[in-house]
Amino acid sequence: VQLQASGGGWVQPGGSLRLSCAASGGTLNSYKLAWFRQAPGKEREFVAVIRWSGGTIRYADSVKGRVTISKDTAKNTVFLQMNSLKPEDTAVYYCAATRIVWSEIENHWRYDVWGQGTQVTVSS
Q1: For the chain, what is the mean pLDDT?
Q2: Which tens digit of pLDDT belongs to each residue from 84-119?
Q3: Pick from 96, 97, 70: which is nearest to 82 by CA?
């Protein structure tokens, strides 16, 4: 499986962005697809994850209520809709895939497939 992320950019505080992660090269039925982010000088941070088969979702507390993860099975694509963006959301956002157990899905080191990052900048 390969992942291709897109949709980043610059937005003012309070604005919205939608990130996309297109998967290719294999079936996703056994995968969980996640978004992580990494700000300069900080560790990679879990944002959200969706189980491809079944659609179970989890969000980080820092984005809950502002972010929605979804999937389009026909297009093999996962989306991250981000609303009410804050300057502290500024980071490089990565999509990733794993087949590990659900209890470990927030651990970035357990993901073996990564897309390239897409920069999100929130500033006035």
Answers
A1: 96
A2: 999 999 999 999 999 999 999 999 999 999 999 999
A3: 70
19, β-bridge pairs: 80
What pLDDT, on the 0 to 100 scale, is given for residue 12?
Answer: 98
- For the chain, give percent helix, strand, coil, nearest 5: 5, 50, 45
Encoded tokens for 39: 């700000």
CA distance 54 to 14: 32
Dihedral sign (CA 50, 51, 57, 62): negative
Cα torsion 57, 62, 68, 69: sign: negative
4: which DSSP letter? Answer: E
Q: Work out the number of other CB atoms within 10 angstroms of the CB of residue 57.
A: 14
Angle at 32 between CA 9 and CA 42, to 5 degrees: 45
Kindly report the backbone phi and psi dihedral angles of residue 26, in degrees, each rounded to the nearest multiple of 5, phi listed first. Answer: 170, 170
